[in-house]
Design a protein that fits this description.
Residues 2-116 form the Response regulatory domain. Residues 124-218 form the OmpR/PhoB-type domain. The protein is an alpha/beta fold. 42% of the residues lie in helices and 21% in strands.
Length: 220
């Protein structure tokens, strides 16, 4: 799962990055509203955490522009502004959730997970597809009820495929969600992760549609 954190306070941004990374997200951080407007509108994210008090282009304007341009990524607003009228304005502008500062990091992570689940068509944290079980909160995987030891990278991959189980996911999209901007986005690296997961999960779970990408070949 790929998350964009837009926060101009370096300490808060670093804390958010650590907390979300520990919860299975691949996190990118920005402090500029203008850069966030461009990145959020041109790249695919599973979640955006957006501070309203940005120095160059305020978060509410960024959000309105995203929604006007058709960006439907779930957005969790952070703000030090406490007035209920401003919360209503944020929700009406297209925010999916709203968290005033100061906040508990555990609550933010829980809200972030819930937004991603709902975007994937699920309210509960567990996904069961045939023999495959994935717990998005505990970041665990089972096959036939037996726990499977996976790395954080492997978990992000199988969870992303499960959340998008109704379609074939291209290698390019998977690479975007698995690796940050500073990592090598090479097809052979993705193929290596897929191969490791197939060995751990067994045959018939991760399927390849040649020329298109990967999908989970598991019944509900």
């Amino acid at each position: 799962m790929r998350a964009l954190v837009v926060e101009d306070d370096a300490r808060i941004a670093a804390d958010l990055g650590r907390a979300l990374s520990a919860s299975g997200f691949r996190v990118e951080t920005l402090s500029s509203g203008r850069e966030a407007w461009f990145r959020g509108g041109t790249e695919n994210y599973d979640l955006i955490v957006l501070d309203l008090g940005l120095p160059d282009l305020d978060g509410l304007t960024v959000l309105k522009r995203w929604r006007a341009e058709g960006c439907d990524t779930p957005v969790l607003i952070l703000t030090a502004r406490g007035a209920w009228t401003e919360r209503v304005e944020g929700i009406e502008a297209g925010a999916d959730d709203y968290l005033p500062k100061p906040f508990r990091m555990e609550e933010l992570v829980a809200r972030a997970r819930a937004l991603v689940r709902r975007a994937g068509g699920r309210a509960e944290p567990r996904i069961d597809l045939g023999l495959l079980g994935i717990d998005l909160n505990r970041m665990t995987v089972t096959v036939g009820g037996v726990p499977v030891a996976v790395t954080p990278l492997e978990f992000r991959l199988i969870a992303f495929l499960a959340l998008h189980r109704d379609r074939v996911v291209s290698p390019t999209e998977l690479l975007e969600h698995l690796y940050g901007d500073d990592d090598a986005r090479e097809a052979n690296a993705l193929e290596a992760v897929i191969a490791r997961l197939r060995r751990k999960l067994g045959p018939g779970i991760i399927a390849t549609r040649r020329g298109f990408g990967y999908h989970l070949d598991m019944p509900e």
